[in-house]
Amino acid sequence: MSTDYQQAREALGLRLRDLRVNAPGSRLTGSELAERAGWAQSKVSRLERGQQTATAEDLEAFAKGCGQPEAADELKGMLRSIESRIRPWRRQLAGGHRTVQQVHNREHAAAKLFRGWEPAMVMGILQTPDYARAIFHRYAELQGTPQDAEAAVRARMRRQETLYDSTKRFHIIMWEAALQALICPPSVLAAQLDRLTGAIGLDTVELGIVPLTASLKIPPATGFWVYDDQRVIVETWHAELWVDEAANVRTYLRTWATLRESAVYGADAHNIINAARRALTAR
Asked: How big is the chain by its Cα radius of gyration, in Å?
């Protein structure tokens, strides 16, 4: 969990405690507030300690229980600030993947310099339509969200137009394992690997592959994008983290630079992709 996100959640918790302690008439105990809201007392404690993220409904109930319903708008404003840093998939994907792709399209349109790391699958910016379609189907099944793969694929393909913008630069590193993961039918992966060999020739793209046999200074963990060295977007299983606190961004830049030390480029990267392609044919 990112430090800036947790600090924001704790700040909301302190504000909640302030409302309870300063309830009109007399100070409320956590047990009294819980009874009014119909909660277990432990929930009040978790919210105030920043150990649980409140929903908008929780905040309305908390403010009302403290006799200060007018504070609900302020509290929900603080929640929106928190959710600008962590965006749960269950909320983002309520209407499908297309909306999420459109948000990423706006980020790509505004930025000029991109540094990306992906250990598990081909980077979205380099995916073929069939490969992207397979990914969207899998994640919709996992999250139990609407299947809108076709609309999501179209949005992702529009983002790939930025690869041909001469004002932008994409520095992408992938682990060799991403070239071998059968998250899609073999024929789809074969076409995807062919697409990667073409990407190596783009003047806007620097594509590095970290071989499975390479010595690593750090584990090849979660994938992420760094935009203009100012914002990081990280995808986890439950949420997407948006990190913009300078110290945390620097951590991701160091991580990216450290992983890059193990990557190979040009003809060497081409050879690894071709080897994965040949191995796929031989299966």
From this structure: 23
Going by C-beta distance under 8 Å and a sequence separation of 6 or more, which residues neighbour residue 121?
135, 178, 181, 183
Question: Domains, the chain, ranges and CATH?
Answer: 3-84 (1.10.260.40), 92-282 (3.30.870.10)
SS3 at position 225: strand
User: Edge-to-edge, what's the strand order for the sheet holding 224-227?
Assistant: 86-88, 239-243, 231-235, 224-227, 113-118, 169-175, 205-210
Task: Give alpha helix (H) positions in the chain.
Answer: 3-21, 30-37, 41-48, 56-65, 72-83, 89-92, 97-110, 129-143, 149-159, 186-199, 246-260, 266-282
pTM of the model: 0.74
Binned average pLDDT, 10 residues per bin, the chain of 283 residues = 68 94 90 94 93 90 96 89 75 85 88 97 97 96 91 94 96 97 95 94 96 96 95 90 86 97 96 94 72
